[in-house]
């Protein structure tokens, strides 16, 4: 069960030595860069770079495989929906029509549409590995102090820290409840029918939401009793100053963002057209 929880896990790769703020800035700027351009050369480069960082973080794939499975399923559904509503959108973008499969009526497949859908899929692999790396390699307390370090109010930073801390707790409680239900004879594994699994998981999620709200109220009351938020500034136990690695990380983030803007100017739009 522990392997299925998404949250901070101790490690010894260089990514753990970076400040949480620098990793967040890198994730946000690179995500913006990948979302603003459809230049396949750029997005493929970022996707490969993200996967290399994922490997460098020494994160075992089996620990996060279900996340990638969900992303693949969502990407597949997204591609089907886009194709269903706009099967000729690619040729409108690139100004060329090269039919690969004639199909039926308006549902034919062209090289341009296939290329456009391929670009949509690549974007997932640009950002999802970075998000997983950020969650697993960043300690919530250290991340909160880093956010406050770059000028974000400490109340907001502490809220983010509590959120990151609470994600694994919610997941663990969910799996514990599900295991208890299965021990009572309620089948929720893959052996059960899909409808039964959905109904059973919903019966877990609803009480879990109410128990989570109750915990939030308890934490808020405890913080108020300790006069949290009285002062405008506070000190941090897990404080980390920016070092050379953080500077390089933020420089790369800005560099990737500027490259995406340059490619938009070079391509005279967001889309790279290989048929020109």
Could you characterize what this model shows?
It contains ten helices and two strands, in the order αααααββααααα. It has two domains: 8-138 and 244-276, no CATH class; 140-237, no CATH class. The protein has 276 residues and is mainly α. The radius of gyration is 23 Å and the shape is globular. The model has no long low-confidence stretch (mean pLDDT 82).
Helix-strand layout with pairing:
Blueprint: H1 14-17, H2 20-36, H3 40-56, H4 61-85, H5 89-94, E1 99-104, E2 107-110, H6 111-137, H7 140-149, H8 154-183, H9 194-225, H10 244-266
Antiparallel strand pairs: 1-2
Membrane topology: Multi-pass membrane protein
Main location: membrane
Subcellular location: Membrane
Short description:
The chain is mainly alpha-helical and 276 residues long. It is built from ten helices and two strands; from the N terminus they run αααααββααααα.
Question: Keyphrases for this structure?
Answer:
mainly alpha
Helix content: 55-70%
Ends: how far apart?
A: 52 Å
Strand order of the largest sheet: 1-2
Please state the overall shape, judged from the principal axes of the Cα atoms.
globular
Number of distinct beta strands: 2
Subcellular location: Membrane
Organism: Streptococcus macacae NCTC 11558
Protein name: Cobalt transport protein
Pfam families: CbiQ (PF02361)
């Amino acid at each position: 069960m522990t392997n299925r929880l998404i949250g901070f896990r101790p490690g010894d790769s260089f990514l753990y030595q970076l400040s949480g703020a620098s990793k967040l800035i890198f994730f946000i700027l690179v995500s913006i860069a990948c979302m603003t351009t459809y230049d396949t050369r750029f997005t493929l480069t970022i996707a490969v770079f993200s996967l290399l960082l994922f490997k460098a973080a020494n994160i075992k794939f089996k620990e996060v495989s279900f996340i990638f499975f969900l992303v693949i399923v969502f990407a597949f559904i997204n591609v089907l929906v886009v194709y269903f509503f706009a099967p000729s959108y690619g040729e409108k973008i690139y100004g060329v029509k090269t039919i690969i499969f004639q199909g039926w009526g308006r549902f034919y497949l062209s090289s341009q549409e296939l290329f456009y859908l391929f670009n949509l899929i690549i974007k997932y692999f640009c950002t999802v590995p970075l998000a997983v790396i950020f969650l697993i390699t960043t300690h919530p307390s250290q991340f909160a102090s880093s956010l406050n370090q770059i000028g974000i109010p400490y109340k907001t930073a502490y809220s983010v820290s509590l959120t990151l801390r609470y994600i694994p707790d919610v997941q663990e409680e969910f799996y514990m409840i599900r295991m208890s239900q299965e021990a009572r004879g309620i089948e929720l594994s893959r052996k059960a029918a899909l409808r039964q699994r959905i109904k059973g998981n919903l019966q877990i999620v609803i009480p879990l939401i109410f128990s989570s709200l109750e915990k939030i109220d308890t934490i808020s009351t405890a913080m108020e009793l300790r006069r949290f938020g009285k002062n405008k500034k506070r000190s941090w136990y897990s404080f980390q100053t920016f070092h050379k690695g953080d500077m390089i990380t933020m420089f790369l983030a800005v560099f990737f963002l500027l490259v995406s803007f340059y490619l938009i100017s070079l391509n005279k739009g967001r889309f790279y057209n290989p048929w020109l």
